[in-house]
Specification:
The complex is a heterodimer of chains A (about 300) and B (about 325).
Chain A: H1 7-10, H2 18-27, H3 30-47, H4 49-52, H5 90-125, H6 130-144, H7 147-158, H8 162-189, H9 192-199, H10 204-212, H11 217-240, H12 252-259, H13 267-295
Helix pairs in contact in A: 2-13, 3-5, 3-13, 5-6, 5-8, 5-11, 6-8, 7-8, 8-11, 9-10, 11-12, 11-13, 12-13
Chain B: E1 6-15, E2 22-32, E3 37-41, H1 48-55, E4 64-66, E5 69-72, E6 75-76, H2 82-92, E7 93-96, H3 110-121, H4 126-139, H5 145-148, H6 158-170, E8 176-180, H7 188-205, E9 208-213, H8 216-222, E10 225-230, E11 233-239, H9 240-245, H10 250-257, H11 297-301, E12 307-309, E13 312-314
Parallel strand pairs in B: 3-9, 3-10, 7-8, 8-9
Antiparallel strand pairs in B: 1-2, 1-4, 1-5, 5-6, 10-11, 11-13, 12-13
Helix pairs in contact in B: 3-4, 4-6, 6-7
The chains are: A mainly alpha (about 300), B alpha/beta (about 325).
Amino acid sequence: MSAIPPLAATRPAAPPSQAAELWRDFRRNRGAVIGLAVLAILVFCAIFANAIAPYSPSEQYRDATLARPSLTPIGGHVFVLGTDEVGRDILSRLIHGTRLSLFIGLVSVGLSLGGGVLLGLVAGFHRGRAAEFAVMRSMDVLLALPSLLLAVAVVAVLGPGLVNAMYAIAFVMLPHFVRLTRGAVLGELAKDYVAASRVAGASTARLMFDTVLPNCAAPLIVQATLGFSSAILDAAALGFLGLGAQPPTPEWGSMLASALEFIQSAWWVVTLPGLAILVTVLAFNLTGDGLRDALDPKLKT
Amino acid sequence: MTVPLLEVERLSVEFGAADAVLPAASDVSFAVDAGEVLGIVGESGSGKSVTALAVMGLIDAPGRVRAERLAFAGRDLQAMSERERRALLGADIAMIFQDPMTSLNPSFTVAFQLMETIALHEGGSRKARRARALQLLKDVEIPDAQLRLDAFPHQLSGGMSQRVMLAMAIACNPRLLIADEPTTALDVTVQAQMLALLLRLQRERGMALVLITHDLGVVAEVAQRVLVMYAGQIVESAAAAELFARPRHPYTEALLASLPERNAGRRRLASLPGVVPGAFDRPAGCLLAPRCPYVRERCRGERPALFEVGASRVRCFYPLGAEPRA
């Protein structure tokens, strides 16, 4: 007799865990994988900046100001990416700048996400009531102002500096998170499992954070990743305007600003920080896109 | 006489602004005794679900709920604080919904959701709760219960989700289970299993069951008493056997006449033309008047109240097979 496999053997294997499934979908997108790899390198640079950077970011080598990128030692030092107008090693400054940029992204996205999720939950749960009106209309007001102008205004009130720039950026990004959260919450609230949870006696706070919020996570994760890149851009812009990080902090935006006068004579002083910003923002955007594709069930086959 | 488990008197639910009020339910009164199966039938938009949601306190602003009395086991639900009401409802009333695909939280596994409910009502160690969750899944006849414990809702079929939902509902040993069209979204073979399961659990546990459905066949099989609703009102309330043998309201008669079983040999199913009136086309008189085959002049001008006819109550001036009402 031909062997009929026992029933248990024909049963399909257990479906992959959510994390495994996410990684499988993410990996299909080559751009996203490259973005993630670049991000990994950037994070590595940020964490181990002190060990990797060949020189201190603020050490001035007076005999080598505006040295071209080259492998030839100048006065016993090799400046692979050249030096700036006061003789600081650009490579070291870029590596330390990574730390700042990622830190700015992390803090401002964190603040914005936290506040945005709270306000969005409140607005979504109080649909049609005064609370929703107050929250959503003030977000509309924030959205009506050009974002950089708003950030400049906030910094003008708080005073220039890196920390205040982060607050300003968080404030500017807030409406996006609020609107996104509220939209996702409204979509979830219409579903029966929320009603079931209410029937079971769940309080509003529990409904908000335990029942509904986990189901709104996907769009928020994507927006947070993309928000990282706009935070870094905004921080660079504020730094460029002299409202963010103050010299001699090796922040990419302020490096650009201080090198502006050498744009004709020493291309590397201006180009390299700009490239660093470009690569970082691109990496975040690619990763965010990949995450969105992987997390969006509508795009799955 | 014992106090009924659930008492609802003159419940009304309204939606919409003051100039365009839609009474989703009006003048709804009924009672459910312990261990009883009550069927609520009516077509879409007749106010069945809204009534259930209002009882559970799930109608949010801008919806308005009013009732002369709303009591569970003799305790007035309207006099309670939000918190007390939640505690009472969560412990003693459970509800299952129409769409099994959205009635489980997609973020958590079956075991997690079941164990959460169990923790709320019984407590116990993680291990004990997991064992209880498994037992509940077996009680609702889920095949391979052990395997399903760690499944996420999207990995379950509609029938299985509905069973898990039912398991969660009975996890707290409710005294009343409200099932809002529990079989509508399932296919026919699963419907029969689901109904048999509901009834078995109802009998074993002595729960009262309020079964909301638009399937008269289902009601005939399970319910002891039936409310027929139309456009937010109860139009007939009777014992199930009585209702099917002697429908008193023209609407009930039309519903029964449209059952396929009663149309054997005919080419077309009998049907009641028209739809339930909406917010802007409610007739001045009896709400059924535009669709009623027996309509008379009086029906167009005046709204009938619920009249006692034999053992039934009927909202009609000219109940079938009885004297006209004054």
